[in-house]
Amino acid sequence: MGHLSTHVLDTANGCPAAGMLVKLQRVQADGSAQTVKTITLNADGRNDGGPLLDASTMETGRWRLVFEVAPYFRARGVELPEPPFIDSVPLDFGIADKAGHYHVPLLVSPFSYSTYRGS
């Protein structure tokens, strides 16, 4: 059964990014985006409510996850320049198989990030 999940790790502090705000958006053909869901990551850096999209809500197409990085680090007491080097991370990706498992992890610090299609 298809589903979408995410996991965020704070590489600057060596821990999950507990408390980070994440938005899931559906990207339209014209490039506009509609927010489908907004979550706050749990102590493990994941969504408490299960997958972001499950078998009943998975759709093929273009999607975006927006990770609110600067507010997360500021809440941890990190002094960031204004404007911050990384404020939010909009990550665009495609779902080609609505029955597939799509896991989108983010490894992040105040000055860098990386991602990949996880398992």
From TrEMBL:
The keyword Hydrolase applies. Residues 4-118 form the Transthyretin/hydroxyisourate hydrolase domain. Substrate binds at residues 7, 46, 116. Keywords: Hydrolase, Purine metabolism. It is an enzyme of class 3 (hydrolase). It catalyses: 5-hydroxyisourate + H2O = 5-hydroxy-2-oxo-4-ureido-2,5-dihydro-1H-imidazole-5-carboxylate + H(+). The keyword ATP-binding does not apply. GO terms for biological process: purine nucleobase metabolic process. Its EC number is 3.5.2.17. CDD domains: TLP_HIUase. InterPro entries: Hydroxyisourate_hydrolase, Thyroxine_BS, Transthyretin/HIU_hydrolase, Transthyretin/HIU_hydrolase_d, Transthyretin/HIU_hydrolase_sf, Transthyretin_CS. GO terms for molecular function: hydroxyisourate hydrolase activity. Belongs to the transthyretin family. 5-hydroxyisourate hydrolase subfamily. Homotetramer. Catalyzes the hydrolysis of 5-hydroxyisourate (HIU) to 2-oxo-4-hydroxy-4-carboxy-5-ureidoimidazoline (OHCU). This is 5-hydroxyisourate hydrolase. It comes from Pseudorhodoferax soli.
